[in-house]
Write a sequence for this structure.
């Protein structure tokens, strides 16, 4: 309970207060006067409720009257409870409910009640028991009082043995020693070691008494038993007056016992004690021993004070634990550390010499001045373990042996004080300091470390990833907490560190460069690939896209922030509502320009994450309004543009970073763009920043160009959705003026002006805008026709506010500029700078002519004539230039497919933060490098394909394109090289490279019937098409559809069908060159005609290519929604484009085994139906045709394009074919399916294929091959009808080198199939040596072999293949004489005896006389005519032991 005093008004009569000098009688007089006047007191006691209790006691009866009641005075304007600097545990009040409470009672009576007599105090005194204490008389002196002494008069001779004592304690100890009577100490008391401890620690005894160890046997007691006083047993706990005597008696009894024992008995007893006692107890006793030894000198001087001697023994040795931990840590040289601990400090070691005239420095305590010593020079530690990394304040890694001066501020009193720099742990600790400067400095250093780590500066110096270590330690949430700090400096430092963690300036630079490439505005979202999410999505395959997104959102909301941030940092930050905090900083705090730019970059990076992130940013209250109002104003201070003007605030000034953020935000979706243009008034900003030239924007020149460029890019994004096209009419004069000024760039191209490259990017952004406006205008007629013909219920899309006639007038300007720019293609340096602009020219012309040919208002003849003129005047001369040959030759060096390492992730990349790995810049010879020909050649091929699509007669004019050796070499190398793994760092580059390959293939398809030399390279283009089809990434579904439609199944790309390919296959089978002929005519359980040859099967497959194409197109119908979005993007139908963000990249569109997709789809359909309880007894005819067409296509590829299927493991191919037998009950009995399956099986049983077969490795798309095989066995038992083809698939996995569990499943659980597994030896395509070599060593399986043979479950007539295998393994086992386990030896001898006693003479002969495998023999193996002598001798020995010496006669 807390009492407070509040001042009250005084009466008219004022009483004077006591003054200095007044006596006690005056005070009593004042008291009586005050009580007689019955005046109200100057203060009033107010009872306040206990805040910890939350309630107040209102009655005096509830308050116990304590004798030590206190008044607690509370002053005005002071809080009741002082604010705690650091969190602490709740404290309990010592005066709870014991406060003085003033009522209306008489003041005198009140004072009497609270007055306590001295007897109440004395009654509680409890004296200490001093009956056992020795009473000594004081030393008689002639002085009336004890003489006053000063510690400076005492000569200190006490040496501190252990621990540290102050000067006062040392002086007092010396004075006590001097005042003691000069009595000679006994020899027994001068020794300080304990005999019992010596027994436990004989090493210490030997060290302390070397002379005794060298004496004769009479001194045996002296060399071990040194002390005559107990050190461990003190007798304090006995509670009697003679406790010390009892302890001494026990000690003497122990000594007598030890003296009667020999040294060997003592050591033996010591070992027994050490084995029985707790190790911690032994360590404690040894520590008492070491403490006693360390204080020997001090005890000698204080030997007459036994109580102090006992107290000193309990002091632990200082530094023991520390030195031990350093030795155990393995991070220091033990010798150097020990030397430093033992060195004594002198005046010479101190940088400042103490002087005696300094106050209190007449006696210097050197151990307290140890910190002033110079640090030892750092040395490389002799350890195999890694040393702790230390960083400078600039974020640089400091070498371990660097000797830096101390004035740099890098030395501190932490661990490894001699090493300069701060470790990550120390910086984390410093970032939570209460000092603002320390928090700010730590965050700044951590931000610099992150920035340098992302640049790869520590990759070769540090082990492990710095970023991953920081994120695992909670660095992200450290920044998030620091972002909420109220101090501006801490806030700014955390923003800078967060930008270093999330944003890569080089990534943004390359994304801006590719913005004007073909389909460059579309980009993949920066969403990390999460394996856990992929597994969850596989479980939810049956859900729709909306349901999946809702389930995913709910799961993320239920997860803690740390769990979300562990796999996606940006999503974790959004979950902490970081956008609201950043808005507050921009709107309220209004930081310096650097912090504002960092925040805008962070928001841009968040917007690149996903469409959901863009929506959250748009929905954040006042965020977009603040950015548009403060950083994209329509007017600002003109002094900003003055040279040398230093901005103190960016608020109220137009900023290019803000415009870029809005542009990236608009890329998140057409709805987001519409909100930005209309709700946030970005249309007026577009007019403001595009209508004026950069030099008129009243901004620094570079900033003005960037702002103008970003404004045009934002307009281009909006036009990509068909929006903001009404601005085109208003700003048409501005666009014409810009286009007229573009040729002027050639005049300044030779000047190395840093603004020149920015001007080229601005011009490319303008042309990109015109590309999208032209595409939108090209759809006007189509939308008008749909609007007039559609009914009211259907969705009506209004036509854009721009028509074709309004955009067609700009084409001459752009074509003229392109002609001028192409003239400098041979000037390498100039061309590298102007290439981006020339690329956009090419893309514009391709889009223009594609849309122009579809306009009803355009004369087709005029359009064709323009194309002929463009071909003859521009493109054909361009293709003949030498510089073009060099560009085609650069395809392979710059390719990401041919050079997978060029798009490998950065050394410090972490999966939770998506990065394009462009930090530090890409090399010039890379796909996005300065010398890359990919953007220009892709645009050129796009233009050529647009021209040849409109004017078929010009196809032959471009035959020279495919004749470039550089292109053919690149295509040949690209499809044969394994592609890099699909990561965010590779996907964005591979997408652009796939565009070039696609256009080259489309041009090759068009030339298939016109170019006479095409047949030589038809297989090359078909292989490239097949490889590209399995590599295309999400967002390119339109390209995959076109390849399936026109390229993959095109007979023109499979010329083998026309040029004798089937006949060559038959001839190869006859000569046994390519495959085994054993399975070419397999038996079938169904009655059928003779089996066709492989050539006939290939011929039928080639003729069925159109039906095969239709089959595959129908099975990819699940990609239809994605195909619609992709077609809208590639066909220029802007009104259908929903977002510039492509789908998330989890891998290619089609799986690597897509040729088997119809089989897999059919198997999954049947399996899912059976799971629900339905039974499919028969399959429709179209499904039989589907399987047939699938097998035909696979047979074509395996025969004529085998390398295109090399990426699919042989085991995966067999697993896919097994789906035929698991689908339905009699599907495999259909004649065409049976024939094609047998033909494929014969190819998979070739020696090379069998060598590569690995059933133990994980297979793509298959959880467990063992489970699949069990299903196959069960299906074979039920519906096989003993079909030999089915039997071969059952027998294939039973080879000796595969898992023994597969063989155990047949011989242990499914022995009934052995009767139906009648595959003839002549039709079995696999050599039996693969089943019998090496000999079986699994005892359980060998017993199963022997049991099935003996019981007749396995017979030669029923299952000849496994009969041979079982006989071979049992024969090898029973006659094996190799050393083995006792169980195996007993088993083989038992089998041999049982074999000899078999009644079945045929089986007995096979098991005993088996010799070798022989494929020509009817049995499959040869027999001995008689047993070899060694086997006969071994058999006789076994049987003799069995009959105990009476072995029967063996006849061989």
């Amino acid at each position: 309970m807390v009492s407070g005093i509040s001042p009250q008004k005084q009466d008219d009569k004022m009483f004077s207060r006591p003054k200095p000098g007044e006596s006690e009688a005056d005070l009593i007089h004042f008291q009586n006067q005050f009580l007689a006047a019955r005046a109200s007191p100057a203060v009033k006691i107010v009872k306040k409720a206990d805040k910890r209790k939350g309630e107040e006691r209102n009655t005096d009866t509830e308050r116990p009257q304590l004798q030590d009641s206190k008044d607690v005075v509370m002053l005005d304007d002071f809080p009741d409870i002082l604010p705690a600097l650091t969190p602490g545990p709740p404290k309990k009040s010592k005066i709870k409910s014991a406060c003085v409470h003033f009522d209306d009672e008489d003041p005198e009576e009140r004072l009497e009640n609270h007055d306590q007599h001295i007897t109440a105090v004395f009654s509680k005194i409890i004296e200490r028991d001093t009956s056992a204490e020795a009473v000594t008389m004081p030393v008689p002196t002639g002085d009336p009082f004890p003489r006053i002494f000063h510690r400076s008069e005492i000569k200190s001779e006490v040496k501190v043995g252990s621990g540290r004592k102050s000067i006062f304690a040392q002086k007092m100890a010396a004075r006590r020693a001097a005042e003691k009577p000069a009595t000679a100490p006994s020899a027994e008391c001068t020794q300080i070691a304990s005999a019992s401890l010596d027994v436990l620690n004989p090493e210490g005894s030997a060290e302390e008494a070397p002379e005794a160890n060298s004496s004769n046997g009479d001194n045996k007691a002296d060399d071990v038993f040194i002390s005559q006083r107990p050190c461990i047993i003190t007798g304090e706990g006995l509670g009697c007056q003679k406790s010390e005597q009892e302890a001494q008696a026990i000690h003497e009894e122990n000594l007598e016992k030890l003296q009667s024992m020999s040294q060997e008995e003592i050591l033996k007893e010591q070992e027994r004690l050490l084995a029985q006692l707790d190790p911690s107890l032994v360590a404690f006793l040894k520590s008492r021993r070491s403490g006693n030894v360390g204080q020997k000198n001090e005890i000698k001087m204080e030997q007459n004070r036994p109580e102090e001697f006992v107290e000193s023994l309990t002091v632990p040795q200082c530094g023991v634990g520390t030195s031990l931990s350093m030795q155990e840590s393995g991070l220091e040289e033990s010798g150097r550390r020990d030397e430093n601990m033992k060195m004594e400090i002198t005046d010479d070691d101190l940088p400042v010499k103490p002087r005696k005239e300094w106050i209190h420095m007449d006696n210097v305590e050197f151990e307290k001045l140890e910190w002033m010593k110079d640090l030892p020079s750092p040395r490389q530690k002799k350890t195999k373990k890694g040393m702790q990394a230390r960083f400078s304040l600039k974020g640089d890694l400091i070498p371990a042996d660097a000797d830096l001066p101390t004035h740099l501020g890098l030395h501190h009193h932490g661990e490894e004080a001699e090493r300069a720099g701060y470790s990550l742990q120390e910086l984390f600790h410093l970032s939570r300091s209460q000092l603002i400067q320390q928090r700010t400095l730590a965050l700044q250093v951590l931000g610099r470390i992150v920035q340098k780590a992302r640049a790869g500066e520590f990759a070769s110096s540090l082990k492990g990833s710095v970023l991953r270590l920081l994120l695992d330690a909670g660095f992200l949430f450290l920044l998030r907490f620091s972002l909420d700090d109220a101090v501006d400096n801490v806030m700014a430092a955390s923003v800078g560190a967060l930008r270093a963690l999330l944003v890569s300036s080089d990534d943004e630079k390359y994304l801006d460069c590719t913005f004007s490439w073909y389909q460059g505005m579309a980009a993949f979202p920066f969403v990390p690939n999460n394996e856990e999410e992929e597994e969850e999505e596989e479980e939810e395959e049956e859900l729709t896209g909306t349901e999946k997104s809702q389930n995913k959102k709910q799961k993320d909301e239920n997860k803690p922030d740390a769990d979300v941030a562990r796999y996606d940092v940006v999503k974790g930050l959004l979950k902490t509502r970081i956008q609201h905090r950043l808005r507050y900083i921009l709107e309220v705090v209004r930081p310096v320009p650097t912090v504002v730019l960092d925040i805008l970059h962070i928001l841009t990076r968040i917007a690149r994450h996903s469409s959901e992130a863009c929506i959250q940013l748009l929905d954040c209250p006042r965020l977009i309004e603040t950015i548009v109002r403060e950083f994209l104003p329509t007017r600002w201070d003109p002094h900003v543009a003055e040279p040398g003007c230093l901005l103190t605030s960016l608020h109220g000034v137009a900023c290019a970073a803000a415009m870029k953020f809005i542009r990236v935000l608009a890329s998140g979706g057409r709805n987001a763009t519409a909100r930005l243009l209309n709700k946030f008034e970005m249309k007026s900003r577009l007019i403001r920043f595009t209508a004026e030239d950069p030099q008129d924007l009243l901004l620094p020149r570079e900033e003005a160009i960037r702002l103008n460029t970003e404004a045009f890019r934002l307009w281009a994004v909006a036009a990509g959705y068909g929006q903001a096209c009404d601005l085109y009419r208003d700003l048409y004069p501005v666009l014409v003026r810009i286009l007229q000024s573009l040729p002027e760039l050639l005049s300044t191209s030779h000047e190395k002006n840093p603004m020149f490259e920015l001007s080229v990017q601005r011009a490319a952004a303008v042309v990109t805008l015109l590309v999208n406006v032209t595409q939108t205008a090209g759809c006007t007629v189509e939308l008008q026709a749909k609007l007039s013909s559609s009914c009211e219920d259907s969705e009506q899309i209004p036509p854009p506010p721009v028509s074709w006639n309004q955009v067609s007038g700009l084409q001459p300007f752009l074509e003229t500029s392109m002609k001028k720019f192409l003239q400098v293609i041979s000037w390498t340096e100039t061309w590298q700078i102007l290439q981006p602009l020339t690329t956009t020219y090419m893309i514009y012309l391709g889009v223009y002519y594609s849309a122009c040919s579809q306009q009803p208002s355009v004369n087709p003849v005029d359009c064709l004539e323009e194309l002929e003129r463009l071909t003859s005047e521009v493109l054909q001369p361009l293709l003949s230039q030498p510089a073009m040959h060099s560009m085609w030759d650069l395809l392979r060096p710059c390719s990401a497919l041919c050079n997978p390492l060029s798009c490998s992730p950065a050394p410090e990349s972490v999966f939770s933060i998506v990065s394009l790995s462009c930090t530090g810049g890409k090399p010039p010879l890379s796909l996005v490098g300065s010398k890359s020909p990919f953007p220009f050649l892709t645009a050129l091929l796009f233009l050529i394909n647009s021209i040849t699509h409109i004017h078929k007669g010009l196809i032959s004019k471009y035959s020279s394109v495919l004749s470039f050796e550089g292109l053919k070499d690149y295509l040949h190398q690209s499809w044969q090289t394994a592609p890099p793994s699909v990561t965010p760092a590779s996907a964005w580059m591979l997408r652009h490279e796939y565009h070039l390959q696609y256009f080259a293939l489309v041009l090759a398809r068009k030339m298939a019937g016109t170019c006479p030399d095409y047949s030589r390279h038809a297989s090359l283009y078909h292989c490239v098409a097949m490889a590209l089809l399995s590599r295309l990434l999400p967002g390119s579904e339109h390209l995959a559809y076109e390849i399936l439609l026109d390229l993959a199944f095109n007979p023109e790309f499979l010329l083998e069908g026309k040029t004798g390919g089937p006949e060559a296959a038959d001839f190869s089978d006859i000569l046994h060159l390519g495959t085994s002929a054993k399975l070419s005519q397999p038996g079938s359980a169904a009655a059928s005609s003779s089996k066709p040859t492989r050539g006939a099967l290939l011929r039928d497959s080639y003729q069925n290519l159109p039906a095969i194409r239709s089959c595959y197109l129908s099975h990819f119908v699940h990609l239809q929604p994605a195909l619609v979005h992709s077609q809208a993007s590639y066909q220029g139908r802007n009104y259908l484009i929903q977002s510039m963000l492509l789908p998330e990249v989890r891998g290619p569109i089609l799986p690597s085994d897509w040729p088997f997709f119809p089989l897999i789809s059919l198997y999954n359909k049947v399996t899912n139906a059976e799971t629900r309880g339905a039974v499919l007894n028969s399959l429709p005819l179209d499904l039989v045709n589907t399987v047939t067409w699938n097998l035909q296509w696979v047979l074509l590829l395996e025969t004529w394009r085998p390398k295109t299927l090399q990426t699919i493991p042989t085991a995966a191919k067999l697993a896919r074919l097994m789906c035929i037998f698991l689908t339905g009950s009699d599907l495999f009995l259909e004649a065409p399916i049976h024939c094609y399956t047998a033909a494929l099986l014969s190819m998979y049983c070739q020696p090379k294929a069998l060598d590569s077969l690995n059933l133990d490795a994980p297979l793509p798309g298959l959880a467990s091959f063992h489970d699949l095989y069990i299903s196959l066995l069960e299906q074979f038992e039920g519906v096989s009808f003993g079909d030999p083809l089915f039997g071969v698939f059952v027998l294939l996995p039973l080879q000796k080198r595969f898992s023994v569990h597969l063989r155990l499943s047949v011989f242990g659980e499914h022995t009934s199939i052995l009767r139906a597994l009648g595959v003839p030896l002549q039709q079995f395509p696999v050599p039996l040596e693969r089943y019998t070599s090496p000999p079986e060593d699994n005892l359980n399986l060998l017993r199963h072999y022997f049991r099935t043979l003996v019981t007749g479950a396995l017979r030669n007539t029923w299952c000849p293949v496994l009969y041979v295998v079982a006989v071979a393994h049992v024969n090898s086992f029973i006659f094996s004489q190799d050393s083995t386990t006792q169980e195996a030896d007993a088993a083989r001898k038992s089998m041999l005896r049982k074999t000899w006693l078999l009644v079945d003479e045929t089986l007995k002969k096979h098991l005993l006389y088996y010799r070798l495998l022989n494929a020509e023999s009817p049995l499959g193996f040869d027999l001995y005519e008689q047993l070899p002598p060694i086997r006969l001798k071994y058999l006789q020995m076994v049987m003799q032991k069995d009959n105990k010496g009476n072995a029967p006669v063996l006849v061989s």
